[in-house]
Amino acid sequence: MNLSEAKQRAEALRKEIEYHNDLYYNQDSPEIDDFTYDKMLRELEDIETGFPELITPDSPTLRVGGSAGEKFSPVTHEVKMESLHDSFSFDELRDFDRKVREAVDNPSYVVEPKIDGLSVSVEYTNGVLSRASTRGDGTTGEDVTDNILTIKSLPHRLKNAPAFLEVRGEVYMSFESFFELTKRQEENEEKPFKNPRNAAAGSLRQKDSKITAQRKLDILVFNIQRIEGKELSSHKESLDYLKSLKIPTAFYRKFDDIEDAIKEIEHIGDTRGENAFAIDGAVVKVDDLYMRSILGSTAKFPRWAEAYKYPPEEKETKLISVEINVGRTGVLTPVGIFEPVLLAGTTVSRATLHNLDFIREKDIRVGDTVVIRKAGEIIPEVLSVSSHAENAEEFSFPTLCPSCNSPVSREEGEAAIRCTNTDCPAQLMRHLIHFVSRDAMDIEGLGPAVLEQLTDAGLVKSPADLYRLSFESILTLDKKKEKSAENLLKALEKSKQNELYRLVFALGIPHIGLKAAQLLCQSFETIDDIMSAKSDDILSIDGFGEIMAQSVVQYFSLESTRELIKELKEIGLKMTPSKQKKGGVFDGKTFVLTGTLPTMSRKEASLLIEKNGGKTSSSVSKKTDYVLAGESAGSKLTKAQSLGITVITEEELLEMIK
């Protein structure tokens, strides 16, 4: 294919993909299946890879993620992105109405849900999405254009657009995507996000937009900040106009009386569980834009808008039973099963009871009446016991695993109780999901559904079996075609050359995360050295504590572990760490990170330090060379100051690298 043919085909593909995006995301009436859509997208990606000069800023391929820059650039907002004044009672809303009527005559109000997400500005120049930025402090935000482009419901190009348009919206994560994400985190025994708002904020500020794309963010636009080439006189008119441009907006209604507006707010609150997104309140806005200019703003808030925040809802229900779930590393997690109760708009019938210590602390017993609420309006949690049932007995944790009937144990100083059988069937599926995950062996095409088919068919009983899959055996799976079977085998073969730390992390050793796996592989020459290491050898690694060291030794002492490593060696997986490049500006230097950094997450800062030859530790000691401190730095900063350790800012870190 020559350049001319490639250009013609790329333009045709973009047009067709955008057409199907509109059908799927805006009209809920798709004409093609996901496989056909993905095939078109892949063809366009291949063309753009072969002819980079054909990539356009609004290409649909950018929606699946590209590589964001080393650092988010600051963006100064031409129109300040103000926050809203909050009301917590309807009388406060009536007071807001009184003040508005003192300044203007006969105002009308628009009532909208207050989406619990991250506020952003999106700019369109001549109909093309040209820039997106976070709210920041209201005056200066961060350029997150690459990540905003991964939001599929937001058009990249507008038809019949004005010369310039800047809109303000709320980026959010739907309940479905949030629960999908936290389920993966819990299965991997990672700390899950507490609510969709935190998940959305963390996902939008990823340096790698491929990660953002995987998080399936969405957006609802609620205001026009600036517009050139069109006159608008009211807020409702502007929202109607945005809808005509296919820009997603939340639901909204107009009222002439504050009492009718309050009734709508009550209705939104009563039905908020029916939405696909989290809301933490409702917003009342003066509709007429000229009236808004008269009302103006205080130093912090506009006088023409008021937010009403819904109070947290708590209810009593009866604990019927306690179910025990077995996690990837064998942790037994108690889950309370309740009499169903309507809470914050949805029916709740179960909630995690975390561990035995939590149950003992609150003295939870089967049959008790308990008080529950939704943490962050999302995840059900038990607050307290209202009353014990008559003759209720203290909860007894099982001594045998409910999945395989093997004994369970609890290590000293640990809250978790674990199944001692590493071949426990309940652990296998979660173990495999972790093994193939992005930060572990990163095997594309092995999602939970495929893994479930493989285990159900008896084709995979351990991670080593994944590498024994044949072309013919993969084709026996439901919906697997020849091309996808070939791609899966290629992905498996490619993963054999992964760095050793990925394999060590993939093994799922209790207490050993990705960072700890990297430190292990930096400290030992081969996998055999790690397997034969004593607890004291591992304890000498900066960043390792006694529990972590014992966990490594115990894991590699198991016969099942040694057999698995032997099999993976024979299959051809990499068992020796790559030699680290020397000469980095931070060679031999140890950093401890604390607080919230201005433009980077701590994980991103750690990777930057390691890229330049340094290493990071979780605790401050005399061996620490620098403490990288951000906002709200705590005891680590205090200890560093007491030990006379150099404390630096993010700006100073970047300057040192330069």
Termini separation: 43 Å
CATH class of the largest domain: Alpha Beta
Please state roughly what percent of the residues sit in beta strands, choosing from under 5%, 5-15%, 15-25%, 25-35%, 35-45% or over 45%.
Answer: 15-25%
Number of helices: 25
CATH homologous superfamily placement of the largest domain = DNA ligase/mRNA capping enzyme
CATH topology of the largest domain: D-amino Acid Aminotransferase, Chain A, domain 1
What does this entry look like structurally?
The protein has 658 residues and is an alpha+beta fold. It folds into 6 domains: 3-55, Orthogonal Bundle (Helix Hairpins); 76-309, D-amino Acid Aminotransferase, Chain A, domain 1 (2-Layer Sandwich); 314-409, Nucleic acid-binding proteins (OB fold (Dihydrolipoamide Acetyltransferase, E2P)), CATH 2.40.50; 425-495, Orthogonal Bundle (DNA polymerase, domain 1), CATH 1.10.150.20; 500-571, Orthogonal Bundle (DNA polymerase, domain 1), CATH 1.10.150; 590-657, Rossmann fold (3-Layer(aba) Sandwich), CATH 3.40.50. 37% of the residues lie in helices and 21% in strands. It has 25 helices and 22 strands. Strands 2-11-10-3-9 form a 5-stranded mixed sheet. The protein has a 5-stranded antiparallel sheet with strand order 14-13-12-15-16, with no helix packed on it. Strands 5-4-7-8 form a 4-stranded antiparallel sheet. Strand 17 (408-409) and strand 18 form a beta hairpin. Helix 1 (3-25) packs antiparallel against helix 2. The longest helix has 23 residues, at 3-25. The protein is globular. The chain starts with a helix and ends with a helix. Residues 24-28 and 64-70 have low confidence and may be disordered.
